[in-house]
Hints:
Layout (H helix, E strand, L loop, with lengths): L2 H9 L4 H22 L2 H18 L8 H20 L8 H10 L14 H14 L2 H11 L5 H8 L3 H21 L5
Helix pairs in contact: 1-2, 2-3, 2-4, 3-4, 7-9, 8-9
Amino acid sequence: MTDQDIICLYWDRNEDAILETSRKYGNYCYKIAYNILYNNEDSEECVNDTYGRAWDSMPPQRPSLLSAFLGKITRNISLNRYKENHAQKRSGDRFAVVLDELGELASSDPGPEENVIEGELTKAVNSFLADLPKDKRVMFVRRYWYADDIGSIAERMNTSENNVSVALRRIRIKLQEYLSERGFDL
């Protein structure tokens, strides 16, 4: 079934939309959730919540890319679950490492002038990523969107973990410089 067929099922309020979404994107959504939560039960709940949120969102929304739409919903739900699970503690789990890596970009004491409009920052990051070579862009997105571990990125990219770690570090530094040059106070 095509994405457009699935979207039509949502718009028609046909409950088969959930079944077809699960068949086509269940594993994809689960991988996103699991890379953030590292817990089967929580990940499965987040995926089920994704289907509910998709049901509530369509209509009025008609996503142009269903996989990205579902991935974003899953990621947001999983991040919220992660925050709930770790509200009182900062453990050394794998996702905390990903957050720490990106935390290097932000200042430790943000002020009101540093609260930029999210859309402008998103455009700047997207522009930066568009200028990267494809392999570097894939590494960055796999690590900071999908929260893949360094080992799986290295395997996917057919390179060493050290090469991936070094490349990601350099990309973060370049991103920080790029954003600073454009007036984002990090």
